[in-house]
Write a structure and sequence with these properties.
Blueprint (H helix, E strand, L loop, with lengths): L4 E7 L4 E6 L7 H5 L2 E3 L5 E3 L16 E3 L2 E3 L12 H19 L11 H31 L2 H8 L1 H19 L6 H30 L4 H32 L9 H26 L4 E6 L5 E6 L4
Antiparallel strand pairs: 1-2, 3-4, 5-6, 7-8
Helix pairs in contact: 3-4, 3-6, 4-6, 5-6, 5-8, 6-7, 6-8, 7-8
């Protein structure tokens, strides 16, 4: 009532001005209690004679979300604690206690960075899966063999393990959260780790089509493609090492991305040089061939992919 009451309009011949009746300003509850009030009998009494003023705790403003009254709690975690760990702690320890104090139709929603993290994880997960499917279909079309495409894509899970291990080791030295740029590093890793596998698979199949046995084709592919594999791997690793080992003021945000790429490339290279040749030799069969002296010689049978 004392904040302003419209009582009429004043017109001076050119402009119309609203007439607002306001009470005298006050800065404390005591000043409000001593404010004079005119009664219908024509007397003035302080407001404290008519009402009782009590100090209490309440929100500075009433907020509503979806037409429901809302109380917002703002939490700022320490710099050395990841947002994912904070959310896990809130949902397991704090949220059950809050629900006990809420009414039956009460609800708890997470906003701000927590909501953004959930959306980012869902978005990056769908993008990663879509990129993996597109990569598999593309390799299957180029090799004309889903089997060879699967061999190439097999490098991705081990590279992901290498990226996670590198992040764990980095956290032993300095705190590195799984932020958006670090998750983007896993998507970038898709296009890097498959290059070495493509070289070996393509060279092996080309040698088989030239008349070599499966075993000889794999050996030739390793001898021929070993140098290009090391060249591409070492350039990727040493190109990211400065960001990982000596991050500057503006490049520290890329440290997680560099750790993922370095760890993933190291593990995927081991897979390419050790496990992939074993997978390429799957399906190789031998049979005994009797020569003129009665000795049995193993002869490799070529299999068409």
């Amino acid at each position: 009532m004392g904040d302003g009451l419209y009582v009429g309009e004043h017109f001076d011949g050119e402009k119309r001005i609203d007439i607002i009746l306001r009470a005298m300003p006050w800065d404390s509850p005591e000043e409000l209690a001593s404010m004079p009030i005119a009664t219908p009998a024509g007397t003035l009494v302080p407001l404290s004679e008519l009402v009782e003023i009590k100090r209490t705790v309440g929100p500075s403003q009433l907020r509503r979300i979806d037409s429901r009254r809302t109380v917002t709690l703002e939490l700022r975690p320490p710099d050395d604690v990841s947002l994912e760990h904070v959310l896990k702690t809130l949902k397991s320890e704090v949220e059950p206690q809050l629900k006990l104090a809420l009414p039956e139709d009460g609800n708890i929603q997470y906003g701000g960075s927590a909501n953004a993290l959930t959306r980012a994880i869902v978005s990056m997960g769908s993008n990663f899966g879509l990129a993996l499917i597109v990569l598999f279909l593309l390799m299957a079309a180029l090799f004309r063999s889903p089997k060879d495409s699967a061999l190439v894509v097999l490098a991705m899970p081990l590279a992901t393990v290498g990226g996670i291990v590198a992040l764990r080791l980095l956290n032993l030295i300095s705190f590195q959260p799984l932020d958006l740029l670090t998750m983007i590093g896993f998507v970038i890793l898709l296009g890097l780790v498959v290059n070495n596998a493509i070289l070996l698979v393509h060279q092996t199949r080309s040698a088989e089509r030239g008349g070599m046995s499966r075993h000889q084709a794999v050996e030739q592919a390793l001898r021929t493609r070993l140098r290009p594999i090391f060249m591409s791997t070492l350039t990727s690793i040493f190109g990211m090492l400065p960001l990982l080992l000596m991050p500057g003021a503006g490049s520290v945000i890329y440290r997680g991305l560099a750790a993922v790429i370095v760890g993933g490339m190291c593990v995927s290279t081991i897979f390419t040089l050790v496990l992939l040749p074993c997978f390429l030799r799957m399906g190789e069969t031998t049979r005994g061939v009797i020569d003129g002296k009665g000795d049995s010689k193993p002869t490799a049978l070529k299999s068409v992919a």
